Amino acid sequence: MDLDALFSYEWGAMAPEFIILGVATLLSLLDLFMGKDRDRKPLAWIGIAGIVIAIGFVVSMVGNDVTSILHDTFRLDSFAIAFKLILLVGTGMVLLLAMNYDPNDGIEYRGEFYYLILTALLGGMIMTSSGDLITLFVGLELLSISSYILAGLRKRNKLSNESAMKYVINGVLSTAIFLFGLSYVYGLTGTSNLKELLYAIAGITDKQQMYILAIAFIMIFIGLAFKIASAPFHMWAPDVYQGAPTPVTAFLGVVSKAAGFAIILRIIVTIFGQAPSGDGESGLLLFHLQDYLAFLAGATMIIGNTIALKQRNIKRLMAYSSIAHAGYLLVAFATLSYFMLDTVWFYLVAYLFMNLGFFAILQVLSDKSGSEDISQFAGLYKRSPLTAVALGIFILSLAGFPGTAGFIGKIKIFMGALMTPSHYVLASIMIATTVISYYYYFGMLTQIFFRPAADDSKIKLPIGVLIVIILGVVGTILFGILPGIALDFLQQFENFGDFIG
């Protein structure tokens, strides 16, 4: 490639990625030359400033035409912009938590804490804009490898070491299955470009090739099901959530999960959206495999909510809660409704605010007491009424109570399931498991408002944690009462869901 061709690309489409890459590089250099005894919190503020600037660039791109560069391997479309906003806002809030994270055993490598979160963010952003299987896989591995290291950053903590090891083993296994499925797709079509793949797969007429394509779909989806902690591929999540540092747990539960669903949308809808089933009467492969998706969604909701009932460790409980919420999102995929993209995006936005707000308060309580047992919530209302009310709002939103963003998100998924009569059973499972979840969510509320406190000392919220809680409360209530604000914003993307341009 000569210089003229190099400079002919619209590199402005990658401005947010360049900003995050530059800030991550800057933080690594500053951390290298700072003394060991120097406070690393300024590094977090630099990272947050970089994220704010990147958000500004992303917002400025709203309404622009689809931009494709580097031979269509990187695409800036409305889908990418919408999901990048979730990833950037979520990571910014995680950095606010990370700068105030102070466990009893400490974190020796706090500088790495900040720039590894940014490199994981960069991987997620690349995934959302990938127009090629190769760049998509590069983004996925950048996110995954950074997450593996972050999970084991508390090197002197046995649970952290265990969580990192289990995360690596399961992550490598899922990646292998995912790549195996992609190899079938590439073997059938001879291309890795998503746009070319769509047309190549739509033109397949040989029934044996269609059978291989169905196997490829199942393997790809299984590999990605590991990433989003969908049952029965969820076994790593409880241990990793419990052992990882609390900000990393929040990152995995929100940002990494959002990136995982973004890649599912990119691959499943783009590659298999027009894939033939081999049955001339019933049309597309996706509709033939709806029962498989529905089974995964139902199993994920049931397993996540029922096993959560017996959990005492709050982070393990939230791991199973996260598994259950992945099941709710899979309902939207199983129904394949017209509003699937809008529904998934809104639910992830709602989940971002309520989940990060919950983990912000949990971090303060667990750092203060050195315990993550549910009893640490006992008497919180007497110790800090405003903090208790905020935590109650987050819990009610996670449970899906009216007036919260979580309720609107579940209603949109539920209505999408009712649009197709054959999914009444799946909608019924969603209602039943939501009712089951009230038991452990209300158990936390009972501890907060009706149990005596073992420690009557007041709770002091650091500035970063306070900002996250305020943003969480505002977002949870605002999008619960006025969901049109988020949905109207999404309507500005005239080509949202246009994956091929």
From TrEMBL:
GO terms for biological process: ATP synthesis coupled electron transport. HAMAP family: NDH1_NuoN_1. GO terms for molecular function: NADH dehydrogenase (quinone) (non-electrogenic) activity; NADH dehydrogenase (ubiquinone) activity; quinone binding. Residues 130-437 form the NADH:quinone oxidoreductase/Mrp antiporter transmembrane domain. InterPro entries: NADH-Q_OxRdtase_suN/2 (IPR010096), ND/Mrp_TM (IPR001750). Its EC number is 7.1.1.-. The chain crosses the membrane at residues 12-30, 42-61, 81-101, 113-130, 136-155, 167-189, 209-229, 250-272, 292-310, 317-339, 345-365, 386-409, 421-442, 463-486. One of its GO terms (cellular component) is plasma membrane. Keywords: Cell membrane, Membrane, NAD, Oxidoreductase, Quinone, Translocase, Transmembrane, Transmembrane helix, Transport. It is a multi-pass membrane protein. It comes from Fredinandcohnia quinoae. NDH-1 shuttles electrons from NADH, via FMN and iron-sulfur (Fe-S) centers, to quinones in the respiratory chain. The immediate electron acceptor for the enzyme in this species is believed to be a menaquinone. Couples the redox reaction to proton translocation (for every two electrons transferred, four hydrogen ions are translocated across the cytoplasmic membrane), and thus conserves the redox energy in a proton gradient. It is found in: Cell membrane; Membrane. Pfam families: Proton_antipo_M. NDH-1 is composed of 14 different subunits. Subunits NuoA, H, J, K, L, M, N constitute the membrane sector of the complex. It catalyses: a quinone + NADH + 5 H(+)(in) = a quinol + NAD(+) + 4 H(+)(out). PANTHER family: NADH DEHYDROGENASE (PTHR22773). This is NADH-quinone oxidoreductase subunit N. Belongs to the complex I subunit 2 family.
